[in-house]
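Hi all, long-time lurker, first post. I run a small reading group and we've been trying to get comfortable going from sequence to structure in the token notation. Rather than ask abstract questions, I figured I'd post a concrete chain and ask someone more experienced to write out its structure so we can walk through it together at our next meeting. Sequence below, copied exactly:
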Amino acid sequence: MAETKSKAKAGTSESVGVGASAQSHEDGAERHVYRSHSCGELRVGDVGRSARLSGWVHRVRDHGGLLFFDLRDHYGLTQCVADPDSPAFKRAENVRAEWVVRVDGEVKQRSDETTNPNLATGMVEVFIRDLEVLSSSAELPLPVFGEPDYPEETRLKYRFLDLRRDTLHGNIMKRSEIVASIRRRMTKAGFFEFQTPILTASSPEGARDFLVPSRLHPGKFYALPQAPQQFKQLVMMAGFDRYFQIAPCFRDEDARADRSPGEFYQLDIEMSFVTQDDVFNAVEPVLRGLFEEFGDGKSVTKRFPRIPFDEAMQKYGSDKPDLRNPIEMQDVSEHFRGSGFKIFAGLLEKDERNRVWAIPAPKGGSRAFCDRMNSWAQGEGQPGLGYIFFKDRQGSGPVAKNIGEERTSALRAQLGLDDGDAVFFVAGDPKRFVDFAGSARQKVGNDLGLIAEDRYEFCWIVDFPMFEWDEEEKKVEFSHNPFSMPQGGLDALETMDPLEIKAFQYDIVCNGVELSSGAIRNHKPEIMEKAFAIAGYERAVLEEKFGGMLRALQFGAPPHGGIAPGIDRIVMLLCGTENIREVTMFPMNQQAEDLLMGAPGEVGAKQLRELHIRLNLPKTQEG
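-- Answer (accepted) --
Happy to help. Here is the structure in token form:
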């Protein structure tokens, strides 16, 4: 394995029964059937000793009479050498990549010109006296040595081979270390780890459930939990005060780069007798410390800023802003109202909801860059991007020409732009263009090299709307967690326009990745009943779907709140990869298929009869 892995694992071999006896006894190689040392353990201090190693043949090299191969195990690599005088030479000539072998030999120091500074074992090698083939390997469907780009289907079907590759193996080990660190930090902070059920009731909220038919109760189904949401609240109502769990969550939804289909893991947290500030103060040190520990020296936000949802959407065009990008959008509608730029002026006059937003582009002040951005916008299905770029203290481009020098200068002053800078414009109803504006902001930042790659920038997004309007269903629905406490409590629910009500709901975001959602919970039954009534749930449905929660609230519930940072996304950020499959041991593909184990698969007629299930499959096109 690479040097980093060898360094990280060299000190752990004793914990698996490797190395301790060999270091105490010269005949240690005879004391274990397979190994006296791991393949990442031998050093110059072991020169002259006998060693027994077992592992995979990583790479074979024939240097005209001398045969070299690197032997690899979980802990690292050791170079092994056989010369024609070795009784094992003939057997060594036959070994191939990924054969599993046991080697006995003498540890020797490499000459100065042959040392490998990239390996922890790079100062020594083992001269082979004996070799046993423990198992051979068929021809590999993908290489283990190096990091070639292979089709995802092949990588997932042969995931056990893919996991032998150095980068992926390192990612999975880093994940293990991160989870262990989280547990230590949470326990030190006074939290207690509890496990909640995997088989539970179906919930009408959120994504689709994975359903599990009940053999003992024909026609009824369990559901795998989308999250332990209700259970962790019930833990608080049972009086346990501070809970955490590395919780598996199951959602039948389409795959995304930052979420595996089917299942994922989260750091589930809940606390009693807390305000929103208390949750923030408990979670920030855990995440800050974790990213400082595993962030390879990148700076980490010292105090996470709190950004209201509405402000985040206006400044960044997203409720998960990448704050490494310094660009902040601004409303510049007044500079265009009644101006000679008729397109924007007409939009502002047509509907009071319409606005013009500016996207500053520091150092983007060239016609070539502005034209590239305009072409990109058209490729995104937009009519284009209006722009102004500045040189010689003047604004250039069609927009500047149409609004005139005075308005252009006022725009420049508001946005703090200088010669060599540019600004782009989006116009219309912000609810319709905000996602595009956010994408344009991020593209400008990326293309101009403005993203600070040397840091982890965290923030809290707060004050989410409690409800939103579902245009398809023509009704009000929950916009976030339905169990959240509305700001203003019952009075707000009874007196305010539902779409104006804010909730004590919050997200934590790092480098443009949403790590978690959380909330202060509603702990009063009358507030829960009213909130669900606004979202269209009748009392009978509330009792049927959330009866356990409703009953618990009626018997003395403490004020409580929590959050659930995603483990997979944390590891993805800390490993510097943009795909969750690179930090998940056995992921599914984009179609939610496990190509290694063949899931989902068909089951036999007997199993279906036991579950009282009859299939009603969709007709194929051929049928």
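A couple of things your group might point at:
Residues 1-17, 19-29 have pLDDT under 50 and may be disordered.
The first strand starts at residue 50 and ends at 63.
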